[in-house]
Write a structure and sequence with these properties.
The complex is a heterodimer of chains A (332) and B (182). Helices cover 32% and strands 21% of the residues of chain A. Chain A has ten helices and 15 strands. In chain A, the strands form three sheets. Chain A has an eight-stranded parallel barrel, surrounded by six helices. A three-stranded antiparallel beta sheet of chain A has the order 8-9-10, with no helix packed on it. A two-stranded antiparallel ribbon of chain A has the order 11-12. In chain A, a hairpin with a 2-residue loop joins β11 and β12. Chain B is of the alpha+beta class and 182 residues long. Chain B has one domain: Nonspecific Lipid-transfer Protein, Chain A, CATH 3.30.1050.10. A five-stranded mixed beta sheet of chain B has the order 3-2-1-4-5. Chain B is globular, with a radius of gyration of 16 Å. Classes of the chains: A alpha/beta (332), B alpha+beta (182).
Amino acid sequence: MTNARMELVCPAGTPATLRAAVQAGADAVYCGFRDETNARNFPGLNFSGEELAEGVRFAHDHGSKVLVAINTFARVNDVDLWKRAADTAAECGANAIIAADIAVLDHVAKNHKQIRLHLSVQAAAATPEAIGFYANSFGVRRVVLPRVLSIQEIAALNRAIDVETEAFVFGGLCVMIEGRCYLSSYATGKSPNLNGVCSPPEMVSYDDEATSTAARLSGFTIDRYEPGEPVGYPTLCKGKFKAGGKTSYLFEDPVSLNAGGMIAGLKAAGVTALKIEGRQRGKGYVTEVVRAFRKAVDAVEEGGDAIEIDRILAGQSEGARQTAGAYSKKWR
Amino acid sequence: MVTGSTEPTLPAVVRHLFPTIAGLPLGPLLTLSLRSLAGRQPRLFERLGEHRSACYFIDPVDLAFAFTVIPDGERSLVRVVRKSETATSSVLIRGPLLTLLGLLDGTLDGDALFFSRVISISGRTEAVLALRNTIEDAELRPADLLGLHGHLARLVDRGILGALNVARQMTDRNPGCEAPEA
């Protein structure tokens, strides 16, 4: 085991959620601006510059850090929007910028040396060579690991690099190589990589039909639900489709990640920070999840056993079936 | 997960305390309240962006009438309407009154209620999302809507939220209350 205490990094989609996460025990919160520069560009979500400055003050007053996600990929001839976002984050006193685009990383490295650079999961850097490139070129201090590595692979990776690693432990799960998913673009013309939004809500509809409710994205039926059956948000990778005469979740079952039982393993593998997904979720949800993971991380740090951790995290779910993803190496 | 069939609705005796649609002063009062809130907290409405001009049809299924709300800051407009007057609305939100009030004061999770179908939503999803995120961030208390401050505000909040809690407990004990037809 490493000696340093692991950092709990929590989502904040709005100023109210930032305060809730900090008060629930987040060591750090991550958030983004109200535009295309971050990968959760949904209506009504995110921060203005003024709100970020207030959020940073609140977090710092309570001993927490603020990490600002500027992690979409800049458009040709329009890099200034991303550069301005980085400048604003630095002016607001954020502790780190989470970025994936080389232009953004370069801008921060050259102009804001006081601020830490974290490599976004959107960069999909999963080898010592790739991570070494970002560390040597831009001074990246931490890499958010793509959700395709087993714990053994993370341990091997950590032995080969000298930057911190951050691993997702809870929340929504993408099945594609992060930052390279074009499914949403095919259906809607917009993608998480460029526009910061997968399945943009203006193209989502729920249509009540004779015997079911159809969830559609840009007119494509993604799933159907019987009366009374819980519905889901229509994302292509978790849709139900007919292929070869059989209807099934063709790409991936609609499951979410819960690696709560693997916190000790991730610590032993040398992981510095644990990340909870969900900037689109409300403050009630964030409070509950952060509080549970705070207790679980503290218990691991104090040598608690697996049974105790399971008991603390019992009942934590996104309302969907759960998986330990690639950490348990049952797929890939 | 909670399902729509077990979600408590207003007891019949409480429903009958509400007047019928004719002569209700609720629309002008709520309009005034919303405009006054916008004057005090303009930033709250900025979060809605372009969706502040959207018309939201709010249908408490256990009341005999519905509301339309255009949350356009100091030009906001709330009207009490018949349940059939949906034609001009961008978004329709339906659910038990106590649940809808729980969304407003932040005690209930809108995502969970929608995905478990306790509330139903149709129309422009992006406008719903903008409203949901705005309300989430607003952390509104009853006194905010009434424009009250200080000791009086705390007193009113305690009273109204306490009454809502009692109503929820009552309905929890009487889950079989039948909702009127929407």
